Amino acid sequence: MLTQFHPTAHLTVGLTLRDETRPESNNIALHSCVSPDAVLENRHQLAAELGVPLSQFVLANQTHSANFYEVTKDDWGRGATSLETAIPDTDALFSYEPNTVLGVFTADCVPLLLWSEQSGLIAAVHSGWQGTVKEIVPKLLTHLIEKKGEDPNHLHAYIGHCLSQDRFEVDADVAQKYQELGYANDWIKYREETGKYHIDNGATVKEQCLRAGVLEAHIEQTAICTFTSERGFSYRQDKQAGRHLGFIFRT
């Protein structure tokens, strides 16, 4: 099961979902699975649904870093069927190569998918709380705008399913990292009943996009919480949880 939409005739953006009818409930991640064969079956099924060979997928070994990587056709197939071939130590991929599927794995963390109809840019970003406070999204957007010549007015963003503020509970040390950003205070709330700070990571990522110049009208954000939704994988709820794949490609 997956959610996908087509902003243009040549662009597909989406996210896989938990599906009890699929092997391992449609887990897409080799790094968090019981059976690698089950995950590969799910990946092949996804490739068939998208009409793009798995050999044209590019995936990374994500480390909650602020590192990004530009994908070319030479990278086709990296990480698609093996962890060993994945782009190392990277949490954001971008490309101008058509017929290339970029993907990021998430379970509670924010999947951000970016594109430009003007330039042909596509990008996929994994931003958990560590990526957000390290500002992976602003760093990638700065690079795209300043080094690749992207016009922020032509950038579009999709923020997929992630942990809601109600379920994202953290201690003071993590809350302080968000406060130090200088623009996330509106999405930090302390609750006496839990003794925790509750943070809206998705809203913070959206603010990072806005601050980089992405127009609010060009940002779509889902309201689905991975913890409470039957369609979501949640690491907070189940440490053995599978992973969604946020994906984007253009023809």
TrEMBL record:
Could you say which protein family the record assigns here? Belongs to the purine nucleoside phosphorylase YfiH/LACC1 family.
| Gene3D superfamilies, sorted | CNF1/YfiH-like putative cysteine hydrolases
Chain's role: Purine nucleoside enzyme that catalyzes the phosphorolysis of adenosine and inosine nucleosides, yielding D-ribose 1-phosphate and the respective free bases, adenine and hypoxanthine. Also catalyzes the phosphorolysis of S-methyl-5'-thioadenosine into adenine and S-methyl-5-thio-alpha-D-ribose 1-phosphate. Also has adenosine deaminase activity.
Cofactors needed by this protein, per the record, are:
Zn(2+)
Which species is this record about?
A: Tetzosporium hominis
- MF (Gene Ontology): copper ion binding; hydrolase activity; S-methyl-5-thioadenosine phosphorylase activity
This protein's name = Purine nucleoside phosphorylase
Give yes or no: UniProt keyword Methyltransferase: no
